[in-house]
Design goal:
Helix 3 crosses helix 4 and helix 4 runs antiparallel to helix 5. Strand 3 and strand 4 form a beta hairpin. The chain contains six helices and four strands, in the order ββααββαααα. The N terminus is likely disordered. It has 171 residues and is mainly alpha-helical. The strands form two sheets. Strands 1-2 form a two-stranded antiparallel ribbon. A two-stranded antiparallel ribbon has the order 3-4. The N and C termini lie far apart (84 Å).
Length: 171
């Protein structure tokens, strides 16, 4: 919910007035790089409300703006219920209430993400120390039995090759 809803895009003039643009499911899916199934899912969840033209879904500029907000909310980690709450406020109480709730939820999400970052940094630190310790222990132990076995196997193959070459030179 980082960007404001853009003004409606107009299509063509109809009787001197601008007609709002409509979108097909394919157009919105392509524009926002989501699947048509995702759009139907958001419709099932009540986040989008396309009209119907026969069997075809017709999305309005309002649906397009809502989809943009849904995807922005998802990208910063909001749940669909948080997104719905913010979107529904616009129609119920106006833009000011929506902005206030969006601000509150955004601040909460920032705190959540900062905590996750701290947890990730701590986990990375622990793993890096573990890797360093393991490398030092392996260095202290020296080459393992599998290295010695590989070296002996290589030596046998090399000798067999040399013995074969020597036999070949004798003929």
């Amino acid at each position: 919910m980082t960007q404001p809803v853009l003004p409606h895009r107009a299509d063509k003039k109809c009787n001197g007035r601008q007609r709002l643009k409509n979108y097909t499911i394919s157009e919105l899916a392509r524009e926002f790089q989501v699947t048509p199934r995702a759009l139907r899912f958001y419709e099932d969840k009540g986040l989008l409300s396309p009209t119907r033209d026969g069997l075809n879904r017709v999305y309005s500029t309002r649906d397009r703006a809502r989809l943009k907000l849904i995807l922005q909310g998802k990208s910063v980690g909001f749940s669909l219920s948080d997104i719905r709450e913010i979107l529904d406020l616009y129609t119920l109480e106006g833009h000011r209430a929506q902005l206030k709730l969006s601000l509150k939820k955004s601040r909460e999400q920032i705190k959540n993400l900062e905590k996750q970052r701290e947890d990730i940094e701590a986990a990375l630190d622990t793993l890096q120390k573990g890797v360093k310790w393991t490398e030092e222990k392996l260095q202290e132990l020296g080459p393992g039995a599998e290295v010695e076995q590989s070296a002996r196997a290589y030596e046998r193959v090399a000798r067999a090759g040399l013995d074969g070459d020597a036999a070949h030179l004798d003929s």
